[in-house]
Amino acid sequence: MIKVEIQDINDNAPSFPSDQIEMDISENAAPGTRFPLTSAHDPDAGENGLRTYLLTRDDHGLFALDVKSRGDGTKFPELVIQKALDREQQNHHTLVLTALDGGEPPRSATVQINVKVIDSNDNSPVFEAPSYLVELPENAPLGTVVIDLNATDADEGPNGEVLYSFSSYVPDRVRELFSIDPKTGLIRVKGNLDYEENGMLEIDVQARDLGPNPIPAHCKVTVKLIDRNDNAPSIGFVSVRQGALSEAAPPGTVIALVRVTDRDSGKNGQLQCRVLGGGGTGGGGGLGGPGGSVPFKLEENYDNFYTVVTDRPLDRETQDEYNVTIVARDGGSPPLNSTKSFAVKILDENDNPPRFTKGLYVLQVHENNIPGEYLGSVLAQDPDLGQNGTVSYSILPSHIGDVSIYTYVSVNPTNGAIYALRSFNYEQTKAFEFKVLAKDSGAPAHLESNATVRVTVLDVNDNAPVIVLPTLQNDTAELQVPRNAGLGYLVSTVRALDSDFGESGRLTYEIVDGNDDHLFEIDPSSGEIRTLHPFWEDVTPVVELVVKVTDHGKPTLSAVAKLIIRSVSGSLPEGVPRVNGEQHHWDMSLPLIVTLSTISIILLAAMITIAVKCKRENKEIRTYNCRIAEYSHPQLGGGKGKKKKINKNDIMLVQSEVEERNAMNVMNVVSSPSLATSPMYFDYQTRLPLSSPRSEVMYLKPASNNLTVPQGHAGCHTSFTGQGTNASEPPATRMSIIQVGVF
Question: Which domains does the chain have, with CATH numbers?
Answer without folding.
Answer: 20-118 (2.60.40.60), 126-226 (2.60.40.60), 237-347 (2.60.40.60), 355-458 (2.60.40.60), 466-584 (2.60.40.60), 614-743 (no CATH)
